[in-house]
Amino acid sequence: MALVLAILGLADCCYQLYTHISGNGRLLCSASTDACVLDQNSQYASVLGIPVVVPGVAFYAFMVAICSPPAWRSRWQLIRPVRLVAVVIGMLFCLYLVFREIISLGGRICAYCTSVHIITFLLFALIVFDASGYRPADSSSRSR
């Protein structure tokens, strides 16, 4: 499930990067006063001249790799903490962006950004749950 979420997040971020670079409007966000367009062209759409979606693409490309089946089965002990730290950083960045949308931009909510934030939250929940070490009891080992 984490891999599917990571792929969806990567696809969404790549689409946003394409529309940002090409200047094409996003689907369903064509009006010049639409929240997506206004957010994409705001002062908060870039950090140090780099569009905020670029770290999103890098984050999700990394998450696709680290959430792949071979990575989940890996015996390398460092992979789980790295996955956890990465998703915590991703979640913190999303919270920063939500703050900017709600507070700094007056509540303009971009649907594409929100979908990435939701995907990141779901990925965060899955990875934190995995890191908790909880494993359901095997039904065959329960006394009947």
| The named CATH superfamily | VKOR domain
Summed up, the domain count is: 1
Q: Please give the count of helices.
A: 6
Order of helices and strands: HHEEHHHH
Tell me about the largest β-sheet: 2 strands, antiparallel
Per CATH, what is the topology?
A: de novo design (two linked rop proteins)
What is Rg? 18 Å
Instruction: Give the CA-based shape.
Output: elongated
- CATH architecture title: Up-down Bundle
User: Could you give the count of β-strands?
Assistant: 2
- Unreliable segments (pLDDT under 50, ≥5 consecutive)? none
Mean pLDDT: 84
Main attributes of the structure:
144 residues; mainly alpha; de novo design (two linked rop proteins); two-stranded antiparallel sheet; 6 helices; 2 strands; 3% strand
Quick structural gist:
With 144 residues, the chain is mainly alpha-helical. It has helices at residues 2-22, 35-40, 53-66, 69-73, 79-104, 111-131; strands at residues 46-47, 50-51. Helix 1 packs antiparallel against helix 3 and helix 5 (79-104) packs antiparallel against helix 6 (111-131).
